[in-house]
Amino acid sequence: MHSGIPVLERAYEILFTGALIFLAIMVVLCLIRAIIGPRIADRIVSVNMMSTMVLVMIGILALMLNEGYLVDICLIYAMISFLAVVVLTKVYLGVYREKKEKEEKEHGSD
Question: How many Å apart are CA 40 and CA 100, to the nearest integer?
């Protein structure tokens, strides 16, 4: 990000800092949504949104600090985040199916 134009560099710094602050506020709001719920699906979507925003924050920091290794960390975090959401969804679907089958057995025996 070192283009040699000080005004442009300062404008980018202000823009990136504002984006980081905004994303930090949004991550906190998603964390509140993940805690409150009320459904499991809301929590899973909230955790997925938080991880996506953290990915963007890492990308912005990679640009601001001019550190290439942060992009590698960002890619690894994206893969882990994707796998975590898939696993959480599979677990949720398994619990939901068990609950549904249990309800069907209870109603079928009446």
Answer: 15
Phi, psi of 104 (to 5 degrees): -65, -40
pLDDT at res. 75: 94
Instruction: Read off the tokens for 88.
Output: 């959480």
Cα(55)–Cα(40) distance, integer angstroms? 23
* Residue whose entry in the numeric block shows the structure tokens 């929590």: 43
Distance CA 66, CA 51 (A): 22
Q: Which residues of 61-74 are buried (b: 16+ CB within 10 A; e: fewer)?
A: ebebeeeeebeeeb
The yes-or-no verdict on residue 95 having pLDDT over 60 is yes
CA angle 100-90-45, nearest 5°?
100
How confident is residue 107, by pLDDT bands cut at 50, 70 and 90?
Answer: confident
What whole-number distance in Å separates Cα of residue 94 and Cα of residue 37?
Answer: 19
pTM of the model: 0.79
Question: Is the separation of the CB atoms in 85 and 48 below 8 Å?
Answer: yes
